[in-house]
Every structure is written in C-alpha cells, then in structure tokens.
Amino acid sequence: MEWETVIGLEVHAQLATQSKIFSGAATAYGASPNTQACAVDLGLPGVLPVLNAEAVRMAVKFGLAIGATIAPRSVFARKNYFYPDLPKGYQISQYELPVVAKGSIEIELEDGRVKTIGITRAHLEEDAGKSLHEDFHGKSGIDLNRAGTPLLEIVSEPDMRSAKEAVAYMKKIHSLVRYLEICDGNMQEGSFRCDANVSVRPKGREKFGTRAELKNINSFRFVEKAINFEVERQIELLESGGSVVQETRLYDADKGETRPMRSKEEANDYRYFPDPDLLPLEIEGAFIAQVKTTLPELPDQKKQRFVTDYALTPYEAGVLTASRELAGFYEAVVEAAQGEAKLAANWVTGDLLGALNKAGLDILASPVSPQALGGLLLRIKDNTISGKIAKQVFDAMWHGEGDADTVIQAKGLRQVTDSGAIEKVVDEVIARSPQQLEQYRAGKEALFGYFVGQVMKASEGKANPAQVNALLKEKLK
Amino acid sequence: MHTKTIAELSHALHKREISSVELTRTFIERIKRHNGALNAYVTVTEEQALAQARAADARLKKGEGGPLTGIPLAQKDIFCTQGVKTTCGSKMLDNFIAPYDATTVERFNHAGAVMLGKTNMDEFAMGSSNETSFYGPVKNPWDLSAVPGGSSGGSAAAVAARLAPAATSTDTGGSIRQPAALCGITGIKPTYGRVSRYGMIAFASSLDQGGPMARTAEDCALLLQAMAGFDARDSTSADRPVPSYSAALNDSIKGLKIGLPKEYFGAGLDKKMAQLIEAAIKEYEKLGATVQEISLPNTHLAVPVYYVIAPAECSSNLSRFDGVRFGYRCKAPKDLEDLYKRSRGEGFGAEVKRRIMVGTYVLSAGYYDAYYLKAQKLRRLISDDFKQAFSEVDVIMGPTAPTAAFNLGEKTDDPVTMYLSDIYTIAVNLAGLPAMSIPAGFIGQRPAGLQIIGNYFDEARLLNVAHQYQKVTDWHSRVPVGFE
C-alpha cells in the first residue's frame, strides 16, 4: 500500500525581550542558576503577573508578517499541571483566544514548486524553568532562570507531506522570526525549538491517521530524522496489522529514534481556564498600524527584489535572502563592487559561504568584510586578476593578509595583459611543442587546451586568459 | 487610650499628648493579657512595632506625618510582611517568612503606621467561622463560646476586643463583612480592583479584595485612603483617581434612596435579626432617606455560583504549595509524586482540600462547560441584577448575615450550612461591588450587622452613609465585657 505522511509543527520561538513576559527579571541566557528569577518567577505566595507590552508587540509583528488576523481581544489562560520546574503549578498561556490567528507562509519544494502552509495560530506563553538531574547525588536541581521567558508558540496546519517539507517550513519560520528581530533563533540555547505531530494514511484517503507528537526537537537535521524514523515506525506498525497509539514521543538524537513519553491515558487534564490575574488582552487598530510601520522587508519580498533588481536566479536569490544578515552582506558587496550583482552572487554563495561553512562561522563573523570582497571583485572586473587567481587572493584575505590590492601587490599576482609579453610566452610554448603543433594542425583540435594550459603554467596563471586564447588561435592557424 | 478611635488617637499623637511608643506599648500589653483567651493574633511583632513607633514619634516631633503616623494596626496573616512569618492560617506556610511586603503593608509602612502583629484567620481565607485555622479557632470577644466569623476572624476579634484600633482584612465571599458583623465592628470591602492584591495570598483571584476593619466608618475612611489606589504590580488594579473618603463623611443623606432587596428578608433570616435591620432602616428614614423594595432575582444562585468559581480559582492558586520551593515539605519523600502527595496532604487542612477537590472537578475536561462556564454566565446575571437595582437606588441595605454569631463547633460538620452564613455577602463579590457592615444592635449579647452595598467605586458614599448612622447610634462604641 502507498502511504501519505501528514505533518503539523508547533514551533516555540523565544521572544527577544529584555525582561520576562510577566515580571521585570532579565531574560539573558547563561546566568548562574536562579539568579535571574524574581519573586514573580519563583511563584511566591501573593505575587501577580503583569504582561510585558514588548512581547505583545513582537507577537503582533509576527502576525502581520504572515498575513494573519490580530485578535482585537485575546485571553490568557492557565494550563494546570504539577512539575518541579513549573513554580506556580500552572503555565500562563493562551488557549481559546490566541493573539494571532489564521496566517500562512510559502515554502519552496525541492522541485521548485511553491507550497502554501497554513498557520492555525500563534499565541503568547511563558516558558518553564529547567530541571537538572546531574551532580545532585540522586536528587534534582531546579533552575528557574528560564521560568517566565516569553515564548511565541506557532502552530501550523497539518499541511506538510514529508520531512523535507517540514524542514523547509521550520527554516522559513526561523528566517522570518530573525528578519523580524523577535527571536535570536539560537537553537543550541533552546531559543527556537519544535514539536512535530506526525501521522500516516493510505494515499487518497481523506481522514487523518492517528498521530504521535514528537517533542523537543532542536535542530533542522533532527526534525528530518525524527519524522522519518516516526513515519517508518508507523507504517511498519500498520502494515503488520497493528495500530498507532495517540501519544507523546521523545526524540532521542543519540539513538536516532523516538520513544513514548506518556500515552493518552496518562495525559494530563490541563484544566485550562482564563487567568483571573490578567485582564483580556485588547489590541487596538492604531497599535497594529503602528507596528506595521516597523515591519522590515520580508524574505519573500526581498527575494523577489533580488531576482528583479540583480537579475539573479530564484535559487540564488533564495539562498541569499535566507537570513537578513546574509542578504545585507550581499547587498553591501554589490555596492562595494559597483553593481557587479551576478559576480557578487557567485562569490557570496560560492567561495564565501563555502569557507564560512567549513570554518563553522556565521556570516556576521566573516573574516572578509563585504567591502573587502567587493574590492576583490573590482579587480576581477578590471582584469587586474583572473577569476582563478582571485580565489588565491580571497584565500589570503581570509587569512588576514590584507585587502585585495595589498595581496595582489605582495604576491605579484597582477594579471599580465601586455600583449607583447604574452606573445613571447606563446611563441616559446609553440616552439617547444612541435609534435603537438603538427597533430593540432592535422585536425586534433582538442589540443588547443594543451597550449592554453602550457601558456598559463608558464605565466604562473597571470596571463589574461582571453588574450591567450586570441593569440593562440591566431598563431596556431 | 485603647477605647479611642483612630481619628481621636491621631489627633492626640499630632498634639504630642501621647506618643506612639506609649500607644503601642498599651496595645502590646493588652494583646499579652487577652490573646490567650481570644487567639486573635498568631504573631506579635513587639520589637518591630516599637521600632516603628519610635520612628513615627520622630516624625511627629518634627511636625511631620499623616493621619496614620504612629497608629498601631494589625495585619491579617494573608498579607506578606517582609521578614515576618506569613502563614495564611495554614500548616503549609507555618515556616514561611515572606521576603517581601504586600502593597498594602508597604502603603501602611509609608504612612507611618505601626504593625502590632499578624492576625489569625481561616486557612487560606476559606471559612466563615475562623475554625479552619491551623492555629486553632478565634473566640468572639462578645461571647467566648461563639465564633468571630471568618475568614478575617482574628482581625475582627482584635478590633472588637480593643487589641488593635484597626486591622486589615480580606473579603472573597464576605470575609470582611461577616466577621465585622459577628464581632460588632465596622468593615468595608472596596470595589474589586480598588485595593491592590499584590502580596495578598490569593484564594480566588477574581473575588479577593482587601479592606480595613475598625470601630467606625470615620476610621475606615482614613485606612481605606491609605490602602486604595492603582498598583502597577496588579493587572486587575483600577487605574482611576481615589477620592477623599473623609471629605464627604458629614454630607447630609437627605433624599438618599435605599433599596431593600426582598430576597434578603425571606426564609432563613433570623426574626430578631430582621427586627434589628428594620430598626436601623427606620433610623435612616429619620435621617431623611427614602426606602423602597427592590428585587435581586438571582440571589438564590449566588452561593452555588460562588462555590464553583471560588474553588476553581483556588484549586489553581494553591498549586504552588507543592513542597518544592517553600512552605511545608513532608519528611523523607520517596519520589516526586510522594513529595507532592504527602506535602499537600499533610500541609493542607480539610476545608482547603475540599475546595481544591471541588475546583479541580469543575475545571476537568467534560465538566468545565456544565460547571465553570455555566457559573460564569450566572455570575453575569447576578451582576446585572445589581446594575438594574442601582438604576433605581443609591445604596442597597440588608442584613450582613442571617444570624448573629453561632457557637464554636456548631457548623463544622456541615459545610453547606456553614456556606449559607455568607448568603447575603457572596453576591457582592461576584459582582465586584463595594459593601460595608456596621454594628446595628445585639441579639442577646451577640452583635448584629447591617450591610450597605454601593455602586462601583462609590466607597465615599458608603462611608458617608455609615458615618451618618454612627453619629446617631452608639452600637459601634460598645465594648465587650471583660475587654473594657
């Protein structure tokens, strides 16, 4: 039987506010345990939550970016359950009336087709603290620094049909929240993580299969692996006559498998009800209009502009607009290279990203600045160096040997364009290759490459290739 | 000195006829002498009180300070007090020393008031007789075999017995007004949102409201002035100006329209209580008020609605008492579940557990719509009743409680009968309205209270109406035998 996979994702994006969602404590990552938890975060008797307006602004920003409805009135609810790192015994979240509803984003599939993925809702909630199980001699430690950190939970429709689509969706959301500057997107620190709802159904059937919820996946690679493992598990189960149980499963990255956390029978009854400590959140049109003016150019708009203005392929434009920082870097290179957009795109997506990738560096940490890279491109453009030599120059720039001109000068890499000098080398090469000359003239035209190679080698790569070609054509006749 | 009102004491303090230290010592001595019999205080902060009194005297000496500077007060043990044990009447918090001050406490400190100590209360404010306290019941100063009412029974008994000129209290379903009535003192529950709830340990967040208890409406006005006002730390706090509560006290109430809800004078009301209330209303007519019968047709729904909403909120509010970070923790827990179960099982008393279980039930999947959601809808109807009434009258009057104080132990085995002692007070909390209870006579030796309900943020009028009555009656000046 042919099976179809159905996936919906719940992405948790930590909002980049200075203070927590319901208290004035700082949200900075990495402080020593419990030093960033105030009376409210600790859930002391008598304390009350007060909503952070900045978190609301960020949620609205996201809603506008995905073309969603911003609820004029949304409600904070309590999700009740006991856990040591949940100080109040309930999490303040939004349940029936979320702040953002019904939006969508577009993802690009492998075959180049564009697919729209619905976003059911996005709601504000507080994060819990952390339980630490090591180094406490059989006991557990609780760190409440993270308790009360604002999260935006972004819930998709079950619109994805493969792990690859899920990854594309997650990447798109990741890019979007970083464009909007509402989340730092740091997956190692847990600022951006996701749960995946996965089910399978016989192809052509409308009814969804029973789903499993995969918890706490914190990298793009793991999303793909976890979903693929789960899909295979479910199909195997169904084909051997079993049935999928609705349950929450944990993805174990070390073992590359998912395993049950708790089943539906053991599931908590969260007893959601509106939090009486917080008034309903009312958002006026004027506020939304104001937030709208702060929206940056979004990835899709930017990509389109790159295609139109810089004559890039949609693929190149897509790569270059994947992050706001990369797009900004690229545009700075184009400016420094006096509009050499195509050349800049080749270099940024090729040599630069390759080198960054290899070194494990972020674009913002690039040892070669956009201005420096632009300067290098200018030297290619004005024939000071060839593209091949440019790679050598780039490598030197990467290692801190100065800007393009300095490197070219110091290493004597200036391209030879003096036709007299090139002609001399050409003549020498022809003179010491009588056999090849005879064969070439007899019709073995493939030997043209041999002559070019010899000339370039003799000139240590510095001869202008176009001039070499022209001279050889002339002289080999 | 101990029989004087705050208004009188404040005058004497500012004239330097007495010092705050003397005054504070007087009350500390009285507490030492009488608290054994009453059990009104659970903590007495003698040293701190004297230090505060000395600081107040220094301010007064310089001609500084306000009406509460140097005035001793008792704090209900539901308000967090920095560095002082804050128990909420529960074993769960028997070891809890609050690391911060409640807004109300902070405001009284700022006003220069002196805290004598913390008063006993029903556990987590759940009770109508002060018998659910971990620290044992409080006795009614008028009759030591009677309950003082609850949950602010310690505060009410302390004020009635002159162990404090005034005390703070809180009211979720009648916990200021009912004990004020049963102890023959004056208490006001302000409009929901008028007094900050920050640092006031939550029972039912949408109903809880702090307010003062004192002997007179005039004193309540001075106290409420200090307590009321916007607090950025409480999202439900009302961001609107606070009028002068003392300024209007002496206004004439000629032409005041009083509504008497027929539902408050029906079956269940003690006959003698009815007579006392009628007599008080007659007094108001003599002062120029007009009286008309009104109807609050959904009154019968108030108790059932309350006993869905309040437990629902409390079941969630009390989840933080889990033995993990503060408060009671059971000995040698086997694992996490054992820690939770035994800490909560051993730390909470029976009434608290009963309400947590009811609240958990009404919020459960499959029952939410039938109970919690339905109760919220009925709550709206109850509010609408009052809205309608206030389009016709200025204030609503009736008994605060159906009977005078009952005997200790009389209702402890029958929670529903106990709940019915709040039948006239609960609807006010559901609607979020302000209301007072003032002394209106005695049934035998036990006091009776008149309830005056006002429209939203109409506290100044309530205090005015109460004060006018107290100018022509002396129920509020009577002192229980043995506490003169």
Task: Characterise the protein shown here.
The complex is a heterodimer of chains A (477) and B (484). Chain A has 3 domains: 3-291, no CATH class; 299-411, no CATH class; 419-476, Orthogonal Bundle (Arc Repressor Mutant, subunit A). Helix content of chain A is 40%, strand content 20%. Chain A is built from 16 helices and 16 strands. Chain A has a 9-stranded mixed β-sheet with strand order 2-6-7-10-1-11-12-13-14. In chain A, strands 5-4-15 form a 3-stranded antiparallel β-sheet, with no helix packed on it. Chain A has a two-stranded antiparallel sheet with strand order 3-16. In chain A, helix 10 (370-381) runs antiparallel to helix 11. Chain B has 484 residues and is α/β, with parallel strands linked by helices. Among the domains of chain B are: 6-256, Amidase signature (AS) domain (Amidase signature (AS) enzymes, Alpha-Beta Complex), CATH 3.90.1300; 300-376, no CATH class. In chain B, helix 2 packs antiparallel against helix 3 and helix 9 crosses helix 11 (350-363).
Walk me through the topology:
The complex is a heterodimer of chains A (477) and B (484).
Chain A: E1 3-14, H1 39-42, H2 53-65, E2 69-70, E3 73-74, E4 76-80, E5 90-94, E6 100-108, E7 114-126, E8 130-132, E9 141-143, E10 150-156, H3 163-179, E11 192-202, E12 212-217, H4 220-239, E13 247-252, E14 257-263, E15 273-274, E16 281-282, H5 285-292, H6 299-310, H7 314-320, H8 324-336, H9 341-359, H10 370-381, H11 387-398, H12 404-411, H13 419-431, H14 434-441, H15 448-458, H16 465-476
Parallel strand pairs in A: 12-13
Antiparallel strand pairs in A: 1-10, 1-11, 2-6, 3-16, 4-5, 4-15, 6-7, 7-10, 8-9, 11-12, 13-14
Helix pairs in contact in A: 3-4, 6-7, 7-9, 8-9, 8-10, 10-11, 13-15, 13-16, 15-16
Chain B: H1 6-14, H2 20-38, E1 41-44, H3 46-61, E2 72-76, H4 103-111, E3 114-119, H5 153-160, E4 166-171, H6 177-183, E5 186-189, E6 209-214, H7 217-227, E7 257-261, H8 271-286, E8 290-294, H9 302-317, H10 336-347, H11 350-363, H12 369-390, E9 395-399, H13 415-420, H14 426-431, E10 435-443, E11 446-453, H15 459-472
Parallel strand pairs in B: 2-3, 7-8, 7-9
Antiparallel strand pairs in B: 1-3, 4-6, 5-6, 5-10, 9-11, 10-11
Helix pairs in contact in B: 2-3, 5-6, 7-15, 9-11, 9-12
